[in-house]
Amino acid sequence: MTSDTSPDRIDELIALAALGELSDAEQLELDVAVRNDPDVAADVAQAIETAAALQRPHAERPSDGLRGSVLAAISSTPQEHASIAAASAAADRVVSLESQRARGRLRPALLAAAAAVVLFAVGAVVLVATSDDPRDPIAAVIESPDAVSRTLAGEIDDLTVVYSASQQALVVEGDGVPVLDDTATYQLWLVGDDGPISVGTFRPDPDGRVSERFGGADPSGFVLGVTEEPAGGSESPTLPILASA
Amino acid sequence: MQRVQHGDEAAFAALYDELAGVVFGAVKRVLRDPAMSEEVTQEVFVELWRTAARFDPDRASVSTWAVTMARRRAVDRVRREQSQRDRIERSATLRPAQVDSPHDAVVSSIESERVSRALAELPDEQRVVIEMAFIEGVSHVDIAGRLDVPLGTVKGRVRLGLKKLGGKLGAAP
Hints:
Largest sheet of chain A: 8 strands, antiparallel
Shape of chain B: globular
Distance between the termini of chain A: 22 Å
Structural class of chain A: alpha+beta
Oligomer: heterodimer
Largest sheet of chain B: none
Strand order of the largest sheet of chain A: 7-6-9-10-3-4-5-8
Number of helices of chain A: 8
Low-confidence stretches of chain A: 82-133
Order of helices and strands of chain A: HHHHHHHEEHEEEEEEEE
Mean pLDDT of chain B: 79
Low-confidence stretches of chain B: 87-107
Structural class of chain B: mainly alpha
Mean pLDDT of chain A: 74
Strand content of chain B: under 5%
């Protein structure tokens, strides 16, 4: 577990945290710094508390009708315990899942299908992007009707994560990803208020292509981050964050 | 809050009654528009409900958690929906917050005086930035634009100002 974040950078991140203006990547960077240094955690807590104290005296009552709307909205909104438990359980299962993970080819057409069902109409013929192997575990996620995708941005900018609730799995796909030597691996993290949770590690093939499936981890409500770690992965992320969403 | 974490809607209603003013106030300072502020306030409370399991009393008070989330949501909304020009025009017509219960008025007055005293002790350059950020609800990018200083300078002044204020403004009730 390492961090090369400078004190000036930490101060900048703490200011942005108090302002509520951290980007996803900055949030992840600060989460790592907080986990590495209890003093940083205390400084963040104090800055946020002070910022809240500055705003608290300026309370202003909303309309009476808002109360009913809020209470009606929450009565139909499930709470999050289940997904956090699922993500934690996924992290616990990383090693065994990795040993069983299925490998596949990069499928640009299937990635497109994850964002929306893609139909190519040619005359009277309609072709639907589908897998040529219905038992392919990666295609099962990407082609699932409930698949949702998120594109990661950063130093590595060609990574897409596709999640299917019905498959209870996510897939990382990418192209042009820098190839690592045998001593290193990429690691995918879900970052929430309780810090980073490892989803698992992945490596590109010699052509820089990535196609990996991980079971269990629901990324909804979490920031996704990718770091480079020593072979076998780490217990917590090592900066810098190479891609996030 | 423990009851809320276990899905108790009645406890959440009580939490709403306690926090609605500070959440709405924090959102409205950023957005100005009352209708949009109520919309974002509702989003904040739904998020508080949905993510209640993540709340850790050792890290912050419920009030701090809610106010921080409120500002973040409001700034996100500004980024998405409002132009800089619209916001400046709205800020020109900004009026003092309306506090409609005697209890809230007293609490607000005491806290306001404490905040004013603490702010007065800051160097001007830090006080101006802190007031713009947390009293007027201006984003750090907009502050940099209005003061014609680099973003890093604004963040540095916010950090130093908050550090100096930290010892003077106690924890939330």
